[in-house]
Specification:
The protein starts with 6 loop residues before the first helix and ends in a 7-residue tail after the last strand. It folds into two domains: 137 residues, no CATH class; 72 residues, 2-Layer Sandwich (Alpha-Beta Plaits), CATH 3.30.70. It has a four-stranded antiparallel sheet with strand order 2-3-1-4, covered by helices on one side. It is α+β, with helices and mostly antiparallel strands and 226 residues long. A hairpin with a 2-residue loop joins strand 2 and strand 3.
């Protein structure tokens, strides 16, 4: 009669056996880290060239490179033993990231960096490199200004007496009113407009109206507080 199967023995043999560790050579670590660095630099370049928001963040772009490298190191570490993988998941689950991501496209670049690091850490280099090329082509193709309209906020300070003249210029722009504040016959008008080309000649025409104090044109990222 065979001995009964002991669950604790299975756990010890399958998970806690030191022989279950897979060694990672120095050459694999060097090649993996260097490859993730190159792919991270490629993502860095694509992000910088395709950036279309208001304020470019160099620190965030550097984070993409470091995220690719660190992710590849994590994957190489947890691939050596299942115990390490469970411990790494538990350790990373307590980390809280509280930095607000305002542009949805930034999240795409973060996932791109993480996915590339996972592929390189797992040793699947063609997925990281060829996949990154196709993602970059898609980003450049979809981010071209000629394929989409760019939204701006037009802010005008003027005397209320020339309100009709200002509106006559705005009607041609197909504007959307965001706010209007009037104080002592001085008005502050904020409207949203969309442009397919960077033609800002209308700004000079509006500012040339007698009674207009100043005109500001700011790219609109989607969040506005009146």
């Amino acid at each position: 009669m065979s001995d009964p199967v002991n669950f604790n023995d299975i756990i010890k043999k399958s998970f806690l056996n030191m022989d279950s560790f897979n060694s990672v050579t120095i050459l694999e670590i060097f090649f993996g880290t260097f490859s993730s660095f190159l792919v991270g630099l490629f993502i860095y370049y694509v992000y910088k060239k395709s950036f279309r928001s208001v304020v470019y963040s160099h620190n965030f772009n550097v984070t993409l490179v470091l995220m690719t490298m660190i992710t590849s190191l994590v994957i190489m570490t947890i691939s050596t033993n299942i115990v390490l993988s469970l411990g790494m998941v538990g350790a990373l689950s307590i980390v809280r990231f509280r930095t607000a991501i305002k542009d949805p496209l930034d999240i795409v670049f973060l996932f791109w960096a993480i996915a590339s690091g996972i592929a390189i850490g797992a040793g699947i280099y063609p997925v990281a490199m060829i996949g990154s090329i196709f993602v970059a082509l898609a980003v450049f193709f979809l981010s071209k200004n000629k394929w989409k309209e760019t939204t701006y906020l037009l802010i005008i300070h003027y005397d209320e007496a020339v309100n009709d003249q200002v509106k006559s210029h705005l009607i041609r722009l197909n504007y959307e009113l965001k706010s209007k504040v009037v104080r002592n016959n001085l008005a502050e008008l904020t409207v949203k407009i969309k442009l397919k080309v960077d033609n800002t000649a209308f700004v000079h025409k509006i500012s040339s109206i007698e009674g207009v104090k100043d005109v500001s044109l700011v790219q609109y990222s989607g969040d506005y507080a009146s």
